User: What shape does this take?
Amino acid sequence: MTNARLIISITCAAVYTAPTIAADRIIQVEPGLWEYSHNLTIPGILAPSETAKTECITPEDAKQNLSDLLVKLTAGDAKCTVTDLKDTLNTVKFDLACRPELESMKITSSGKAAFRYSRTKISGSVSGMMQINQGKDIFLYGEGSAQRIGRCPG
Assistant: This one.
């Protein structure tokens, strides 16, 4: 999955424990050329960095079922779970907890995530705490945005 699709997928994510009506929601954006950026700040560890990139979103990728996006968010090495989904009109909020399996260290993180979407714009944020090797809590904050900027080249 490319970065833009991942950003759109994460930005459009939700949960296994969500009410059925929310999980069945279709998230639809306009196909075309999208510009996206994202950053994650972890004071003392990672400084914010935001570089805009572009990607062509196909008609197939432009329409996603919220429950399918949940599977993408919770699958993989990060071992994330989503709970307490609140889905109203064009805004989705949820709690996110991740416990990646790494050989050299134990990391746990939890926080709150939210995103707003329309057919041509998406914006979202996540904030929370993480621990490395059961050390002290470290604050983290991330945000991302994407917007359609035109037709795909070619």
In short: The beta strands are 26-28, 32-41, 53-57, 63-65, 80-88, 91-98, 107-117, 121-132, 138-150. The chain is about 15% helix and 50% strand.
